[in-house]
Amino acid sequence: MRRLGICGAVVALLAAVMWTAPKSAAPGGSRRVLAAESGLKFFRGNLHTHTLWSDGDDYPEMVAQWYRDQGYDFLSYTDHNTLQVGDKWIDVQKSAGGEEAYQKLKTAFPSDWIKERKSPEGRLEVRLKTFAQVSTEIARPGKFLLIPGEEISDRYGGLPLHMNATNLKEVLPPLGGDSVYEVLQRNTDALVAQRERTGQPMLIHLNHPNFGYAVRAEDLMRVRGENFFEVYNGHPGVHNRGNREHPGTERLWDVILAKRLTELRLPVMYGLATDDGHNYHNREGKSSKPGRGWVMVLARELTPAALIASLEQGQFYSSSGVSLKSVVSSAEGLEVEVAPQAGCTYSIQFIGTRRGFPPEGKPVLDEAGKEVWATADYSEKIGEVFQVVEGVRANYKFGPDDLYVRAVVTSSKLHPDPSARGEFERAWCQPVRGPAAVNPE
Q: How far is CA 37 from CA 24, 294, 340, in A?
């Protein structure tokens, strides 16, 4: 086992100190209202986006313009293992966007914006714009914000382990490790160290845990300083729903919450929705198009610091189409009100776990009786549906044994561009600690 050493231990300690600060409403705590009032506003944003700087198929300025024109308030670029800085030229014809992306760029921007040259072989190349250039051109103070980020793309063995870092100053190279848990912890510690050294607000989250079925609940639940994961990712290849041997992301969420709020004494894990946009030209087949999932962050101003502070406090909800008017959490429970669309009906589920659940899981076996790399099979007492309300308003009252409760709102409207067949539009409220939750260390 690779040892982290004294420096690694110090960084891990900093992670515990810095990142256990987020608090959700708990018994005896104040009433918290997630609603656009008292000078606060919901800002819609996507925290997972790719461009031609890595494996997206469009130019960064075109991607930013798409999100701005679709009514988003903020966007974080998260190309693989890179920040959009420096000098990078691409071969137009060999690039993922090809001639189509190039012609759209020429139509949208004047010729003096686009920098072209011929390669030694006579091929047309275009210089990609940097983050600073695109932000100056596309962003609008108080109206549309671009945030630098990176998808730290690591692995353990053959398992892909990807984490998104938001609002970085410097690129974070993947650090590897001797287990899935160690890879996640080492990369988390690196972000915490950069945040501490620079004083710049930053955020890290786990991407698509079921991509390659790489991350088990048992791996993620133990990571300190990492309090966010993607409960919904719009890429069609990330298996949000799981399969026969692997649980879906919502089941992972409940197992993680139950363990963190009891034996691990760690903060709640928050669930993000992202679109993981790669494909911007309406290509046929299983493409990863933009606009499938996003977060609605309640903040006073549209700045990276304000958005990250609200995310860390759980002052947001995640959506693939459903809008919420308010979410109220208190020592008594959780209230949800939908901002309905005409012609739609809504089902509001309150899901949670109570004290005294069976803590041990059973290994998952394949048809031949061999153990599968998968989250263990835990009791149905973890992630129970406590209450279901049909309508646009619902209220759940805590019982004395409740560890946490979270709400999921499902619309009768099918997602217009789903990542998987049969998806309905949904919204995910963040978990609220109940009377029986153990305080974080």
A: 19, 21, 18
